[in-house]
Design a protein that fits this description.
This protein is an alpha+beta fold. The longest helix is centred in the N-terminal third of the chain and has 12 residues, at 48-59. The protein is globular and about 40 Å long. 26% of the residues lie in helices and 16% in strands.
Length: 168
C-alpha cells in the first residue's frame, strides 16, 4: 500500500476543495509544513488574516504553505459565498495564500481533516472558535496546535514553523 493511503499518512490523506474550484490535496504538499487555520470574515480575530499573510510571505520561499479554511461554525461569522469571501480577503487583507471552500470544522459533519484532528488530539483539541491553528509537519503528522488567541506571528508558532523548514 502506498504511503499516501496508509494510516501513517496522517493529514496527507485529506483533500479540500479550493474556494475558487479545484482540489487542494494535502498530499501535494508532502515534505512541506502546512499551517491550517479555520477562518471567518466577521470575527474579532479576523485581523489575523494580516498575520497569516505575513507568515506566508515570510516563509513560503522556504516551503511553508498556509491554508485558510473558511467556516461558519462559530457565531455564524462566515455567512458569505465563495466570491464574497475571496473579495473580502483580498480587498481587506491582501490574502494570497490558498483558501478552501467553506466547510464545517466541528461535530459529526466536520470535514474529515478536522475529525482526524479531534481523534488525534481528543475533543479538547478540536477548534473552539475561528482562527484555531494546526501545523502539519512535512511527514503529515500534527506538529503543533494553537487556539484562536495565539497569533500566527507568535514566536511559539513561528518557532515551530522554522524548526520544520530547511535553513534559509
Amino acid at each position: 500500500m502506498p504511503a499516501a493511503e496508509s494510516p501513517a499518512a496522517g493529514a496527507h490523506r485529506f483533500s479540500f476543495a479550493g474556494l475558487d474550484g479545484g482540489d487542494l490535496p494535502l498530499a501535494a504538499w508532502r515534505g512541506r509544513p502546512v499551517l491550517v487555520v479555520n477562518t471567518a470574515s466577521f470575527c474579532g480575530y479576523t485581523p489575523q488574516y494580516r498575520d497569516l499573510e505575513a507568515v506566508w510571505q515570510r516563509y513560503r520561499g522556504r516551503g511553508l504553505i498556509v491554508l485558510g479554511v473558511p467556516c461558519n461554525d462559530f457565531g455564524a461569522q462566515e455567512p458569505g459565498s465563495a466570491a464574497e469571501i475571496r473579495q473580502f480577503c483580498e480587498a481587506n487583507y491582501g490574502v494570497g495564500f490558498p483558501l478552501t471552500e467553506k466547510v464545517r470544522v466541528i461535530g459529526a459533519a466536520a470535514h474529515p481533516f478536522y475529525r482526524w484532528v479531534a481523534e488525534e488530539l481528543g475533543e479538547a483539541g478540536a477548534p473552539r472558535w475561528n482562527f484555531h491553528k494546526y501545523l502539519v509537519g512535512p511527514d503529515g503528522e500534527l506538529a503543533g496546535a494553537w487556539p484562536s488567541q495565539v497569533r500566527p506571528t507568535d514566536p511559539a508558532v513561528t518557532g515551530e514553523i522554522e524548526r520544520l523548514l530547511p535553513a534559509g
